[in-house]
Design brief:
By secondary structure, this protein is α/β, with parallel strands linked by helices. The chain is built from 14 helices and 9 strands. The protein folds into 2 domains: 76 residues, Arc Repressor Mutant, subunit A (Orthogonal Bundle); 247 residues, Vaccinia Virus protein VP39 (Rossmann fold). The longest helix is centred in the N-terminal third of the chain and has 30 residues.
């Protein structure tokens, strides 16, 4: 008689710990939708002064339904996103919650990320197909909420770091920008990084390039709204053949790992730089070994990379698929294969690494 394999023994403590994590994720997953709803309806903004409100008062301020608002408030209180006083049945935002939920340029502004997550959920069928076929999924194929959410989420980080620390960390670059330099911002998206640099260095000229035409249209309007259209231009062009030469600075913000042929892009950057020009590469923070990134930040980046970055690269020629957690060693290989001799980490935050590359 054939022996039957016995089922592996279950450790109740390990099972309970796993289920506790799963329950937290259940709440977080559902609450992500409530953050998007609250942001779209202006519910968080209406609480931005920190004054306690009843559900009825908040509904009146936002022209929304009181019963729905009450349940939304209770969910937010259970999630730690609003404060609650049981005696008065009023809700309010603490100063910390205000900073994260109602202050757009705060370095910890959160709603944009959840719009990105919602967009990915709407794209679930396309992403499933990308898994099955291996053909990838281009940035342009995503729900438009991803583009706007990405700008809202990344811009505060650039506001906090780009001019104050990242550019000063590059050898001699800040001085050039102050005197007047030519700068190319590749993969510029909605132009947030390009416009921030233009506002900080009025004597320099800035050229933003992105293959996504709708993002370029948005960037042009944003530059006009910011009053910098006289020294900023945006054009549709991919990273491997954007126009222009003799740039003093070429910048890639959180996009090199999205490219199908990042080594080919590196080669083109080298050819477009002035003799003493600099390539600034901003990438998500990551250690070289995957297991070193198995932490809360790495979890966010690996998940985003699975839904957005890796499929984007695989949809292009070569399809190297670096992923958002490539790490410094792998990025060095890509950059130096493009002909760069000098590569160093110039700055870092808990969420980003900033590299300087020179010929």
């Amino acid at each position: 008689m054939a022996e039957t394999a016995s089922a592996p023994a279950i450790d109740p403590q390990k099972l309970n710990k796993f289920l506790e994590n799963a329950v937290r994720d259940m709440g977080a997953s559902l609450h992500a939708a409530l953050i998007v709803i609250g942001d779209r309806l202006g519910l968080y903004q209406a609480m931005g002064d920190g004054k306690p409100l009843t559900a009825g008062e908040l509904a009146s301020k936002t022209q929304t339904n009181e019963r729905n608002v009450l349940e939304w408030l209770r969910a937010n209180a259970a999630s730690g996103y609003v404060e609650y006083d049981a005696a008065t049945r009023r809700y309010w935002l603490s100063p910390e919650q205000q900073l994260a939920l109602t202050t757009p340029d705060s370095p910890v502004h959160l709603p944009g990320f959840f719009h990105m997550a919602a967009a990915c959920m709407r794209d679930e069928a396309k992403i499933v197909d990308a898994f099955r076929t291996g053909k990838g999924m281009g940035w342009h194929e995503h729900d438009p909420g991803l583009f706007h959410g990405c700008e809202r989420f990344f811009r505060p980080n650039y506001v906090a770091n780009l001019v104050s620390s990242w550019i000063p960390s590059l050898s001699g670059v800040e001085e050039k920008l102050k005197r007047g330099a030519r700068v190319a911002d590749i993969g510029c998206g909605h132009g947030a990084s390009t416009i921030l640099m233009a506002q900080a260095y009025p004597k320099s000229k800035f050229f933003g390039f992105d293959y996504h035409d709708r993002s370029v249209e948005h960037a042009r309007q944003a530059a006009k709204n910011a009053g910098v259209e006289d020294r900023v231009s945006f054009e549709v062009a991919p990273a491997k053949n954007y126009p222009g030469r003799d740039y003093d600075l070429v910048a890639f913000f959180d996009c090199l790992h999205d490219m199908g042929d990042p080594a080919g892009a590196a080669k083109h950057v080298k050819g477009s730089l002035a003799a003493d020009g600099c390539w600034m590469i901003v990438e998500p923070f990551a250690h070289d070994n995957p297991e070193q990134n198995f932490n809360p930040v790495g979890r966010v980046y690996y998940s985003a990379s699975t839904l957005i970055c890796t499929p984007a690269s695989m949809s292009q020629e070569v399809g190297l698929a670096l992923g958002a957690q490539a790490g410094e060693a792998r990025l060095r290989e890509v950059v130096t294969s493009g002909g760069f001799q000098h590569f160093r980490r110039a700055a870092e935050t808990p969420f980003n690494m900033v590299f300087e590359a020179k010929a």
